[in-house]
Write a structure and sequence with these properties.
about 325 residues; alpha/beta; D-Maltodextrin-Binding Protein, domain 2; six-stranded mixed beta sheet; 13 helices
């Protein structure tokens, strides 16, 4: 009985005191990338909500696996948070069975924070003004259209794998080391199309140098004005989005998890958060609860696992 009372008292004391020091938000990429942008957009409103500084800790490398492993092996005390995408949580462990963490076992979901579609962008020389025309052209020329991506197993790569499967196409994958060189290859005509993030292609689309045929969400989105969703473009069975979410080490006390969830939700509701993210082609997308986010991941894992298998991708 005394032990139980001591544990209850300790838990209550933790709940009252957390957070008592700065919280580290670990980013698996260098400053300036999409994950870093989302993290820094949420930094100030989360600091206000938690009453403690949020310290951005960039740990790039191995497609964000270094950061994920670091957080997975950190003390489960609520002071180390990971911002991660499907790549580091669901794809990287499939590509590298020797990876030093099991994301679904070693990391606890807090909440999804953002979501954005990709853009199907083509070189003007392809001669396709609509997605239907691109599909028709690809079917007449099997194996002759090259699509660029930011690397094997990346979200743009796997989004194109899903597109080929749903549309019944045969295209050639050309991986690059990053989104910028992939888009430049389409611009130069070395490849013909890419599934790319909105910030990387919209300036070129607006300048008339690339053509945006569709976004990968089922419906249109104000994030990419004037571009149809997949249902309108003729592929109603296609939908894929790229999201970021917060995770903590498994075993983090429920009190800390709840406070992080509440603070993040408050930060996502701040007017400046949505407007800042929208400028980069993404939107706030919070979960209803940590359990809701965990259920979403369990479902999403099936999609990404199937795409990795369909792609036949191997570790670089």
């Amino acid at each position: 009985m005394k032990l139980l009372l001591a544990l209850l008292f300790a838990g209550h004391a933790f709940a009252q005191s957390y957070p008592a020091k700065p919280v580290r938000l670990v980013v698996g990429f260098a400053p300036g990338g999409a994950a870093d942008f989302v993290a820094r957009t949420l930094q100030e409103p989360m600091q206000r909500a938690l009453g403690q500084p949020i310290v951005i800790d960039n740990r790039p490398g191995a497609g964000s696996s270094i950061a994920a492993e670091h957080v997975a092996k950190s003390p489960p005390d609520g002071y180390t948070v990971l911002i991660a995408s499907p790549s580091s949580i669901l794809v990287n462990p499939l590509l590298n069975p020797q990876i030093g963490y099991n994301a679904l076992r070693d990391l606890a979901p807090v909440t999804k924070v953002s979501s954005s579609p990709l853009v199907v962008a083509v070189n003007a020389g392809v001669g396709a003004g609509t997605l239907a025309e691109l599909i028709a052209h690809a079917k007449k020329n099997p194996g002759k259209l090259n699509f660029a991506s930011s690397g094997n197993g990346s979200a743009p790569h796997l989004a194109a794998v899903l597109f080929q499967r749903v549309a019944g196409l045969d295209m050639v994958h050309v991986p690059y080391k990053g989104g910028a060189p992939a888009v430049q290859s389409v611009l130069a005509g070395d490849t013909q199309l890419a599934f790319a993030t909105p910030p990387s292609v919209l300036p070129l689309v607006q300048a008339g140098r690339l053509k945006a045929l569709a976004v990968t969400s089922r419906e249109r989105t104000p994030l990419v004005p004037g571009v149809p969703g997949m249902a309108e473009a003729g592929l109603p069975d296609y939908e894929i989005s790229f999201w970021y979410g917060f995770f903590v080490p498994a075993g983090t006390p429920a009190e800390a998890l709840k406070k992080l969830y509440d603070a993040t939700s408050q930060a996502l509701r701040a007017p400046e958060t949505g407007s800042t993210l929208a400028r980069e082609g993404t939107e706030t997308s919070g979960s209803r609860s940590p359990e809701d986010f965990a259920a979403f991941i369990a479902t999403d894992a099936k999609l990404w696992s199937r795409l990795v298998k369909d792609s036949g991708v191997k570790l670089d």
